[in-house]
TrEMBL record:
Transmembrane segments: none annotated. The gene is waaF. CDD domains: GT9_LPS_heptosyltransferase. It comes from Zemynaea arenosa. This is lipopolysaccharide heptosyltransferase II. Keywords: Glycosyltransferase, Transferase. The keyword Glycosyltransferase applies.
């Protein structure tokens, strides 16, 4: 049986927003299994995608071309019988893999020097499209008119949710509000710790039994600790670096609401269709919005934003500093009332 290979983006949020491409590919060829080649950091996201037959983890180190290693790995892929491959990263390194594997149809955006390596080449519009339709368009002919893309979707079964809650020390019947205070891109994307702390105070004051959990990578633990220093530890959990990504995904699937910076965990929450508040400062809320049934995007849309910089070039960080906790609270209350 012929198979399809999708080569994943390297960022968690981008991997989530690429999922609608698989929905379109499955609609076109429902009989064809879809495998995803992903970095270990993104693999748990793809394991929560029901359209994926198998997740293959990339064995390559970050940075070097590693041509010999790619050639060896391509030989393994050749034996799996792929009819087509969709290369989502824009680098030459990932376009080499399906070419070396002899996959007949190789689809992707022009990227860096990829003529010949890809034989179905798409070009992005100016200004760039939002991320979901950007990836979903690869399922169509490059000359086809743009169509509305389906929204991203992930799934976590109830047993995995219960196991994640038990490990985190969260009672299954407690109201769970999750914060994602980190952002891999850089500090400019981060809502100030004191704002998260004030929002946590409002949640706990309204519901004395609510639990506020903070998720993120080990790099985010310091930012979460800063919030704890302000709020105290009562009914607060710093889970940054203490949960694997698959466990964090399962906790999000169980949450009553998620408040997140523009980050990978924001898009995980959106794809799990959890009530979500998305906080935007230096990035464009229209470029990668949440798609949950219940979602609010908060942005001051200052004249200086979106600057898309890792650190505020003006030094004031007003796009996040002046986004007050009260605005997030007003958006959060109706979500908590839904329970």
């Amino acid at each position: 049986m012929k198979r399809t290979l999708v080569i994943s983006p390297n960022w968690i949020g981008d991997a989530v927003m690429a999922q609608p491409l698989l929905q379109r590919l499955k609609q076109a060829h429902p009989e064809r299994p879809i495998d995803v080649l992903a970095p270990p950091s993104c693999a748990p996201v793809w394991r929560a995608v029901e359209d994926v037959a198998e997740v293959l983890e990339t064995p390559f180190r970050h940075g070097p071309l590693q041509l010999k290693e790619r050639w060896r790995y391509a030989r393994q892929l050749r034996a799996r019988g792929y009819a087509d491959a969709y290369v989502l990263p824009n680098t030459i390194k990932y376009a080499l893999i399906p070419w070396l594997a002899g996959i007949p149809k190789r689809v992707g955006y022009k990227g860096e020097m990829r003529y010949g390596l890809l034989n179905v080449i798409h070009r992005d519009d100016e200004p760039p499209r939002p991320m979901v339709p950007f990836y979903a368009a690869l399922a169509n002919d490059p000359r086809a008119p743009l169509a509305v893309a389906p929204r991203p979707r992930l799934h976590v079964d109830e047993e995995a949710q219960r196991a994640a809650c038990a490990k985190a020390g969260v009672r299954s019947d407690a109201r769970l509000v999750l914060f994602a205070p980190g952002a891999e891109f850089g500090p400019a994307k981060r809502w100030p710790a004191r704002h998260f702390a004030e929002l946590a105070r409002m949640v706990r004051e309204r519901d004395p039994h609510a639990v506020v959990g903070m998720l993120g990578s080990p790099k985010d633990r310091e930012a979460c600790d800063e919030i704890l220093q302000i709020t105290g530890t009562e009914r607060m959990l710093n889970l940054a670096g203490a949960t694997r990504l698959d466990e964090a995904i399962a906790l999000i699937a169980h949450a009553d609401a998620v408040v997140a910076n523009d980050s990978g965990l924001l898009h995980v929450a959106s794809a799990l269709n959890r009530p979500v508040i998305a906080l935007y400062g230096p990035t464009d809320p229209d470029h990668a919005p949440p798609f949950s049934d219940v979602a609010r995007s908060l942005s001051l849309r200052l004249d200086c934003s979106p600057c898309r910089q890792r650190i505020c070039p003006l030094g004031h960080h007003n796009c996040m500093e002046k986004l007050e906790p009260g605005a997030a609270w007003d958006a959060l209350v109706p979500m908590l009332d839904r329970r």
